[in-house]
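Example 4.3 (complexes with small molecules)
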Amino acid sequence: MEYILQQPVVASIGAEKYKCTIEWHHGKFITDEPEFAGGKDAGPDPYTLLLSSLGACTITTLRMYIDRKGWDIPQIAIALNMYFKLEGEKKITVIDRDLNFLSPVTDEQRDRLVQIAKVCPVSKILEGEIQVRAFAYTETTVEDKHTYTNGEVTVQWRPELCKHAARCATQLPQVFNPAAKPWVNMEGATSKEISDQVGRCPTGALSMAEKKQ
Ligand code: SF4
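Answer. The structure with iron/sulfur cluster bound is encoded below.
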């Protein structure tokens, strides 16, 4: 099992209603709720972000396909919206995508592009089986720290913060093996691979020690 993102998306919120800061690997942005929901509308709300993800994935996939085909379709736009409906006891979410090619396309091209839109990666995720899991952690001040080094980089492990979700063990088992002693084998991968994996520990149990000058 390997995560798709090198670094997790991190969302945080303070007391200000309902400003969330989203950190991705190359920057930050703000989300909010509309005023009727008690926010200030200072950024996209979560439903908008969900549709944005699908919209971006759809037209990026189409752009790649169009370019591969060498078709002259310079501009594509997409409008998205969604609603909920009940089928018996079951709540169904319906997402509609309206594609606009902003230049003439043949019927054949349009049909093909609609087919391609339906199989963009985010469409497949939304239409496939999804498991959404949740784990909970608390920030604490922890002094108990184990260190492991390969001479080039040093990994710190704070057992009290480790929730044993085994993400490190499943993603880099040649380094992190809870059945071994010591459980961290710093010779099992390159310093970069180890440091990337440490960055994915969701609880902060793993961290890189600052290099001494
Ligand atoms: S990923 Fe972090 S929390 Fe999970 S087992 Fe490894 S060290 Fe512990």
